[in-house]
Amino acid sequence: MLDAVARLVVFHHTPSPALHGMLERVRSGATEPSIEGVQVVLRPALAGTALDALEADGYVLGTPANLGTVSGALKHLIDTIYYPCLEITAGRPWGFYVHGNDDTAGAVRDLQRYVGGLGWNRVAEPVLITGTPTKADLDACWELGATVAATVAQSR
User: Fold this and answer.
1) The total number of structural domains that make up the chain
2) Which CATH number belongs to the domain containing residue 133 in this structure?
3) Helices and strands (DSSP H and E) totals, the chain
4) Considering the entire predicted model, what is its pTM?
5) What beta strand segments (E) does 1-77 contain?
6) Which of 21, 44, 99, 100 could form a cystine bridge with 104, CB 3.0-4.6 A?
7) Strands 121-122 and 127-130
């Protein structure tokens, strides 16, 4: 019998070059060859469904900080998956990254409150970037992806 493959879904809203770079580094870390048995799926927040969340073993969420909160796209995703996933996905590992031009505090507060209601288990420090991402910022994104993927791999 073949071992089951774990699934990590990266739900993201990526409207800017900075967020695209962050997403690519998260993906790169999550698909690190030494982390075996994890399928990584990138899903734009507006295309994400409850089925995507239910079929996943872990999550990374990525958003810009828009007007002091998470993007409308990511909020829409959370509203869409909340009730179908409320009890079934509790305890699953997750992590997140946020990019803002000058502040991420409101987005971080709101995202943690929304996901806290789902009961997911944050397994990595969030990556919070303001302004143009530095090499160290992008390396932190890589670590975020690798950490969540490794946690998902160990949970299978």
Assistant:
1) 1
2) 3.40.50.360
3) 5, 7
4) 0.96
5) 6-12, 38-44, 58-66, 69-70
6) 100
7) unpaired
